[in-house]
Specification:
about 25% strand, alpha/beta, 10 helices, about 260 residues, five-stranded parallel sheet, elongated, 16 strands
């Protein structure tokens, strides 16, 4: 029997342990995190059905982490908070929380809200696509559109791009990318560089000066969501046909080569 997976992200060790113990007693698989950094790793590794997150965490804003979780479109979110004004609740729900529980709270109410969220999750359909403005990823047909143009990717390139997009703009190391994109692979993590180079040739305006898939020194790679959030420029080719800048750079490179 596979247990429902629940992640708790709470900076207070006593409360975190208490909540985890009660959830385990009623049959849930529980994964605990004290801060955002660890929570992101657990989230990708475990892919929990429900994430319980405090609004104030030791290494960052719980609301911002909630927004990041919501963008992943994978889990229900229950926010815990000592902030109890109506404005605070509205802010938490707008950040992506599916429910908001004010501290202090009773354990029976907590468990009842968890059960209610999990019932809602059963009726939800999984996301079929990810939309990042200029970049759209179809998870069902495993297709990618960039600047309105269909991009042909290999299965390895698609998996790599999907993992980068899922990270929400955060940098991922080569071993982490390898593990998430191809869990069964035994390749050297440096093979990621080869796939990134190939991917850049297909979606970057100028692969020699990448702006979308960025190298993070001493870490790995990240997808620059800031660039994708606003329309990218296009221009008119000499024939009068409008082409994406990615194509225009190739045309220009070809013309300069002929010169």
């Amino acid at each position: 029997m596979v247990l429902v997976s629940i992640q708790i992200v709470e900076g207070n060790p006593h409360l975190r342990s208490l909540l985890g113990w009660h959830l385990q007693q009623v049959g849930y698989a529980v994964h605990q995190s004290a801060d955002i950094r660890h929570a992101r790793d657990v989230f990708f590794n475990r892919q929990p059905t429900l994430v319980i997150v405090d609004s104030e965490l030791p290494d960052g804003d719980g609301l911002e982490f909630c927004r990041w979780l919501h963008r992943q479109q994978l889990s229900m979110i229950l926010m815990l908070s000592a902030r109890n004004t109506e404005a605070d609740i509205v802010e938490g729900l707008k950040a992506g929380a599916d429910d908001y529980l004010r501290k202090p709270f009773g354990m029976q109410e907590f468990l009842a809200r968890v059960e209610a969220l999990l019932r809602r999750h059963k009726t939800m359909t999984p996301p079929v696509s990810l939309d990042y403005g200029e970049l759209k990823i179809d998870l069902v047909q495993r297709r990618v559109r960039f600047q309105g143009e269909s991009i042909e990717l290999t299965p390895q390139e698609f998996s790599l791009l999907y993992v980068l997009a899922q990270a929400g703009g955060l940098p991922l190391s080569r071993p982490e990318l390898l593990r998430r994109a191809w869990p069964d692979a035994i390749d050297n993590p440096r093979t990621i560089d080869t796939h990134v180079l190939s991917l850049r040739k297909k979606i970057e305006i100028d692969p020699r000066q990448p702006s979308l898939i960025q190298t993070v020194r001493n870490v790995g790679y990240r997808l620059n969501l800031e660039v994708l959030s606003s329309p990218m420029p296009s221009a008119e080719h000499a024939t009068g046909k409008s082409l994406p800048m990615r194509q225009l750079s190739k045309v220009a490179a070809g013309e300069s080569h002929r010169l």
